[in-house]
Amino acid sequence: MNQQSAIRTPQSALERMNIQMIISGVGGQGVLLVTRIFAAFALREGYPLIGSEDHGMSQRGGSVMTHLKIGNFDSPLVKKGSADLLLSLEKNEAYKTLYYLKPASNGQDGGLCFINAPNSNDMNKEIKKYLQERRIGVYVFGADQLAREMGSVQSANIALIGFAAAHHRFPFQPEKLREAIEQVTSQRFREVSLKIFEKGFLEGKKSITE
Amino acid sequence: MSDSEKRVVLGNEAIARGVVESGCQFFAAYPGTPSSEILPAIVRFKKENNLDLYIEWSTNEKVAFENALVASYTGKRAAVAMKQVGLNVATDPLMSAAYIGTIGGFVIISCDDPGPFSSQTEQDTRFMAMFAKVPVFDPSSPKEAQQMLPIAFELSEKYQTPVILRPVLRVSHAQQTITFNPIRRLGRKANFQHNPQRWSATPRFRFLLHKQLNMKLKKIGEEFNSLTSFNFIEHDRDQAVMGIIAGGIAYSMIRDILLELGLQREIPVLKIGTPFPFPTEIVDAFIEKCDHVLILEETEPVIELQIRDKSKITGRLDGRIPNEGEMLPEVITQVISDLCKTYSIPVGEVPSTVTLEKLVAGLGLPIRRPTLCSGCPHRASFYAIKKAFPNGIFPSDIGCYTLGMNMDSVDTCHDMGAAITFASGLYQVYHQDNKEIPIISTIGDSTFYHSGAPGLLNAVYNGARFILVILDNSITAMTGMQPTPESGMTADGHPGQPLSIEELVKGCGVKYIRVVNPYDIKGMIREARKAYEYTQHPEGGMAVLISRYPCITYQKEILKVKPIKVDIRHVPPPEKDLPPLKSGNIPLSLLPVYQDKIAPCTGACPIQVDARGYIALISKGKFDEALALVRQKNPFPAITGRICARPCEKVCRRGDVDQPIAIDLLKRFVAERKNTPVFNVTPGPEKKAKVAIVGSGPTGLMAAYDLRRYGYPVTLFEALPLLGGTMAVGTARFRLPEDVLNREIDIIKKLGVTFNLNTKIGHRKSLDDLWNQGFRAIFLAIGAHKAKKLNLPEEDAKGVMDSLTFLKKVSLGKTLPHFSRVIVLGGGDRALDAARTALRLGAKSVTVLFSRSRKEMPAEALEISEAEKEGVSFQFFSIPTKINASRGKVNGVSLRKTVLSVPTSLGRTKVLSVQGPEKTVKADLVITSPPYVPDLSPFGNAIPQTAWNTIHVDPVTLGTSIEGLFAGGDAVTGPKNFIEGLAAGRKAALSIHRYLSGEDLRANREGEGVSMELVSVNIDKIENQLRVAEPVLSPESRSKNFKEVRLLPSEEALVAEAKRCLHCGACYQCDTCMLQCPEGAISKTEEGYVIHYEKCTGCRICVQECPTSSIDMPAVGACIACGFCLKRFECPSLLKGEDGRVKIDRLTCVDCGLCIQVCGQEGIYQKAL
Question: Helix, strand, or coil here: A19?
């Protein structure tokens, strides 16, 4: 047999982006829409993408989580302690998925997480301390409230993306995300979604001081 | 969509793309996670590209497999998709297909579910492939699955063998960027070549086929050795300390891990995409070069077992890799790291997340277990089933509804269709021991079509009896809303035929089929109990309920037809004094109380006889005690048992089930048994103040009885020569025999009442005379005996007489004019008494004229039918226009037909007008039924009167405006029935007693008389059993005599009748409360039940379930945090708030309103929109 052809080398490191992320929440909150927005982003920008979403029984009212890897990856699963980003639409689901975040190492900062919860102060102190020590950035934002005020309760997911996009280490350009949202949302929700995205972004600019 | 375009797609869509890119022309599937998205994607590609491709959702995997297999026999390429356990269903055709092979390419896509996430097992399809001797491809990513399919089809065609593609969940449900390649359009035409030796091979040929198969596999294995696109080595080298052999998805995982650990150049990887037949050569060569080899594959050691020399191997067989569950990157990373340390390969530290995981675990966060969706009709069905059969066994099946286990309504879930076969097996095994247990099997509509029918046929055939509930939401919801055969919709829209579950069930031989609406929870509970009755009935059998309501997630619009808004009322105000979750701190007023209540029959009785009490005694054979209980309130049980209007029976709750209890007969029975104990009633301590009673009807006698019991000397004045008033002279003897009447009047006599017969007050003796004789109080109970005019021409003619006068003359033995043809006008009891008396006295014909229908006649139905049997004829819808007379003597009646109004809500009609020609009927005696008023003329102006010519009294006390003068009964109210007469007498006696003792006449009298607050009992579970038949004297034996017509049933029959009583408001220790209490807070003692308040949450279920309403609790009308809905109804939109109370999750609530039906406290309610 031809040995030469059986050899495969990894793809050259042409990728400018290697991002691993977790999106978590509860069935009904629109975790899958968030996934689709980032998938659309990756496709538009020409980045390879692989990920895995929960189906089947977990769809019915239970915890929902998707793994998303943009860049040079083969496996759809994010390893614990490897995620650059965690977007969580629900506080308890956020706690349950925090361990995916990458701790700081070799002079590099840890991952970032953005959590939709009404009150930023009620996070468990020990856990907060643990994350701070590992330079994992935690940002709590009342996305539900913003979405409700803007008249579209179900768009908290978009508000959270907007908020996160304001962080200087968030790897996706807000303008590109905006285009992805425009592409993915249905016509009926497009206008309000974009407004909520902008508003979330402004809130992020205001409150993310790092 | 153009070809060669990059897209982010789901693994299953990539597979679908691979299928169409291979030129597949026939595709069949049965949905099952994680395979379900393949078929819809193929339908999309077909439509977008206008492909010549037949697609079907088959009814099960075996069916799908065989349809597609035979398509490949005709030369077309065909494929079938299913989940891994679906392949179990199709194993039979799979095994044979390997031997017989294919013509066109045939690919079986079987999706594995390591984890498992939504399957019964973690089984590995690659083993099935080995077992069946079928080549298998194991893709590492969506992209590779897409690329493998054309190769798989080619291989299948080349070797004429089926080929399996085995993606795992992380391939099927991964998302990946792929490139769409051009679609092949083979355009092959079906061409079945007759070849019986192959297509229907006999065992001898099978042997040859097996031999051929083995040769094929050998060749394919060799080919796989050089199939470098799927089996290849990465970073190959001549010698390595450690190498990895990775199959399928494990390859993708190890690639990312090695990259992250920086080991990709240190550790060569042999990737295996075709684990069977095994590419031995390439594997052996790789192992040769390595000192140690780690085998990574999902889920079973298929590659590992096929490696003959295992000396260098580590993997699952030695336990290095966990043998259960999905392979996770963190676990494998740790394994690699450990191995590197062992083999001195430099490797960086892997950061541990254990500390953080422990911290999070310490928070005790609620686990969001999978649950039925908000508004799911299955939830309502399960709630109803559990409610109806708290102790049933519940075999269930595979689908969304398996989640009914959260509600304790699913006991088993095994494989498709096992709900029915498990239920029949359970029935038989208990039946063998002569034990019948409610077995309620639940199965979804799609699962029933899949494999329910064979089990049902078997159950019916072998005589099993259980309840099968088919949860028909008209869709295959669990796997993503695929149509079921019931809809007639096909996968790609080709014409199909809708099927009917009812017809299928009927075809299985089931005789009892009911369609129920689970959204009517109470209705469903009722139907479930009825179905159980059927299974228990000697003539019964299998019962099937089709619980039909569309999947609410699929058809949310159905809730918008009649939209409602669900809300929760909280008490006390949310700001303060929140009640805690468990009771103890809940005010006692909010907790259930176990206490007997007044039964409706007693409440409706004007003199409050404890009917429920004496019926219970009769049912236990305690007849004397029963009689004593009756006599406590009623000294005239024998009379009452015959002529009472029985308001008790009108409110008897048994009447809502079938017929009211025969309370009259039971009372008469205890009063009339031989050797009943003597009624030892004694007067009260003698008092001085004398009381005069005028009139000896029921009212007068009852007043006399009570007043004597108070101790007053009573003198009774009666105008007639005999006692009893209308009982004696206004009631036919064959209904109330003289001896019965006299026997009970004797009780009054025994009490020492002085009687003055033939003494009409107002004539020779005036009221003043009585006062002068020293009577301190006078009670007028003179009845209403004066007939008013009818205003009919000739009503004063000779031979025209009102019914009371007629009966009175008969009773007193007065002479009557001769008559032979009698007409009776009116349909009351007394009119019928007169008619039947006239017949007994020798009338040749008696005709009753009534203005409306038979149903509307006020007389009792039995009396009407008996009158008919005796020979009385009836003319309904007839109204007299005049009485005809000649020379002052009656000779007939002219009548016309009536026109009636539409019945009112109470069912009553009014005579609007008359119509048609006037008819004349001949008669020599006409008995009328005029209105009666008291004859007050003898009193002149001595007593106050109303405008209706009755005596004017204070309705509370029955006192007149004259000091010491009381009046009651028909003289006050106009003609009323017997029992109301008794009540009036009792009321007057109390007033007179208070008057004479100087007490307040009006104090505390609210409780007297009829109670309108009737306890309502639960009749859902009562089986029908009709009222005891009442024997009557044969019509022949009645002729020309006044023997009593209505007889008593046997003692045995009456005891059985007493047992029909529902014990309204009185506990009979049925244990329902104890069984239904979700907290186990009720226990049993000899006296009854004890509610342990420390366990009680106040959910009110015991109150709702108690069949006799013996447990009471005010509905708070607000959430008291009992937690019942959270525990028993388990809707994801009902959340437990921080304060323990229930709140609605607006994000997921669909406002289905089912929780309103469930909340016992009426705390969840329908808010105005």
Answer: strand
Domain B690-782+940-996: CATH class, spelled out? alpha beta
Q: Which residue of A has its CA nearest to B6?
A: A43
Task: Give the model's pLDDT for residue B574.
Answer: 47
Residue pair B1149/B374 in contact by the 8 Å Cβ criterion:
yes
A184 in Cβ contact with A33 (< 8 Å): yes
B482 touches chain A (CB under 8 A): no
- Rounded distance between C-alpha atoms, residue B557 and residue B544, angstroms: 28
**The pLDDT of residue B3:** 45
Q: Which long-range contacts (CB under 8 A, 24 or more apart) does B1084-1090 make?
A: B1088/B594, B1089/B594, B1090/B594
Report the residue from B6, B351, B479 with minimal CB separation from A81: B351
pLDDT score for B1121: 79
Q: What is the CATH number of domain A18-207?
A: 3.40.920.10
Alpha-carbon distances of A155 from A147, A206, B824, rounded to whole Å: 6, 20, 82
Lay out the sheet containing B889-900: strands in order across.
Answer: B878-886, B889-900, B911-922
Do B118 and A73 count as a contact with CB atoms less than 8 A apart? no
DSSP letter at B450 equals I
User: What is B6-224's CATH superfamily?
Assistant: Thiamin diphosphate (ThDP)-binding fold, Pyr/PP domains (3.40.50.970)
User: In the prediction, which pLDDT does A174 show?
Assistant: 92
At residue A107 the predicted structure's pLDDT band, cuts being 50, 70 and 90, is confident
CATH of domain B230-359: 3.40.50.920
CA distance B1020 to chain A (A): 34
Residue B451 is classified by DSSP as I
| CATH number, domain B377-560, options 3.40.50.970, 3.90.650.10, 3.30.70.20, 2.40.110.10 | 3.40.50.970
What pLDDT does B110 receive? Answer: 98
Query: What distance in Å separates residue A170's CA from the closest CA in chain B?
Result: 21
B176 touches chain A (CB under 8 A): yes
Digit-coded pLDDT (tens) for B453-492: 999 999 999 999 999 999 999 888 878 788 888 888 899 8
Question: Which regions of chain B carry the CATH code 3.40.50.970?
Answer: 6-224, 377-560
φ, ψ for residue B925, nearest 5 deg: -140, 125
Chain B interface disruption, residue of A74, A91, A152, most B CBs within 10 A: A74
pLDDT digits (tens, 9 = 90+) for B75-108: 999 999 999 999 999 999 999 999 999 999 999 9
